[in-house]
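Recap from last week: sequence in, structure out.
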Amino acid sequence: MIEFQHVRFAYEKGRPVIEDLSFRIGDGESVGLIGANGAGKSTVMKLLLGLIPAEGTILVDGLAVNKANLPAIRRKLGFVLQNSDNQMFMPTVYEDMIFAPLNYGLSRQEAEQRVDAVLERLGLSELKHRHNHRISGGEKRMAAIATILAMEPEAILMDEPTSALDPYNRRIVINTIRGLKQTKLITSHDLDMILDTCDRVILLSEGKIAADGPAEQILRDRALLEKHHMELPLSFTGRE
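Predicted structure tokens:
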């Protein structure tokens, strides 16, 4: 579904942020992309979405990420931003959710049916006509996920989906992510959330892959994590 082949990127000449990066994510995989600040996680997301140009090859469902293919690629990828306020730009949840389906050519009846189906599936029907500035942070994060699901993407990218959430809303978001059937690439410093939602982890360090393998294997490796300026998930503390 997603493939990087010897990808390189630098914001400043001679100072690469991503260097000779190669990996593949299969259809339906749930992959956590972890690393310390500055490791290159957000840059990988931007490269996938075609927001910045790269050296090397990036493929999404067999399509090269380039200017000509961007409209098709962006219909395949849904991106849940870290800050929901930057994603929810219409007055109400309903207007946000129906915006993309209508722009994809669905009739209003078809688009509304899709919106209602997603809201019911997530247990969020009561939010449909709520104003975005009058819902809680947790509700807004769930509404942002619902907005992406209404687009019916083949893969979902998530940037810190549980940041700034209280424990109750964090658990709701985690359970929702676990129920999604799409291919998922999730960046986060919340390693317990990554453990709960991802089968595989890619550890980035200075724009390169430091480790790639089963989530539990990598996330219980204290020496590996500390070497790359991260801490063992709380789930494993005291019982490595």
